[in-house]
Design goal:
The chain has about 270 residues and is mostly helical. It is built from nine helices and two strands, in the order αβααααβαααα. The chain has two domains: about 1-190, no CATH class; about 195-270. About 80% of the residues lie in helices and about 5% in strands. Strands 1-2 form a two-stranded parallel sheet. α3 (about 40-75) runs antiparallel to α4 and α5 (about 115-140) crosses α6. The longest helix has about 60 residues, at about 195-255. The chain is flat.
Amino acid sequence: MKTIKILFTIAALTLVFSVQAQRGARIGYIDMEYILESVPEYQEASTQLEGKVQKWKKDLEKKQKEIDQMKLNLSNERVLLTKELIEEREEEIKILEDEMLKYQQDRFGPNGDLYIQRRQLVQPIQDQVFNIVQEISEAKKYDFVFDKSADVVMLFAAKRNDISDLVLRRINRAAKREEALNKREEKQIEAEEALSGEQQDVLSEREKALEDKKKAREEMMEERRRIRDSIRDARKAEFERRRDSLLKVREQNRTGGGPPSEGEGEENNEGGEN
């Protein structure tokens, strides 16, 4: 069956290249695996899914060990058990084996969780790639665009016909536009995309320098704010100390007096100054 598919593919490609030779058709291709590996959102979700897969595998291993242990116990104790107990043990093992098989099918079967979640993970990006390929094909007059990582066998593929990076740039552009907070940022993104690689590097260095200056300025302002707050707190504490001292002297004078305190001297001095 696989041989027939390969022969059919070769025949189809031969026909395509024959058409290209006759009327100058343009052919391009993409590498879907390369595109998926370059999309951060896909990689993050794929890592999370792999974590689930490892947990499912551990659950299956645990169930299998439990079943193996029950079989071993039954084998060692068979001569000591009655026929009814043996049948009961075998029935328990059979139930656990059926449960494990069902768990395996639910997780890894043709319509299991792994298949469904992988499809849900890939489908949005595949749809986006399909739409972008349609736009590129119409804009650049491609007659055929193949997926290098699919079942179609690429006997030869010149790098100049690979539009994977072009598709990936448009995906990244769409992601940036979704994150843009306003029209100004969107225009800035479009302007950056129009720059050459060298110009983009210069722009990135400039942005980093501006960001470093901004950070340094914020740190300086924070230090000034901290010093100002410290001075204000010290002045407030001194004011409260002097106020309490004056109130204490006044209370002593009102109730019969006592020797003048430092606070009273300070009050008299203040009065003289006034």
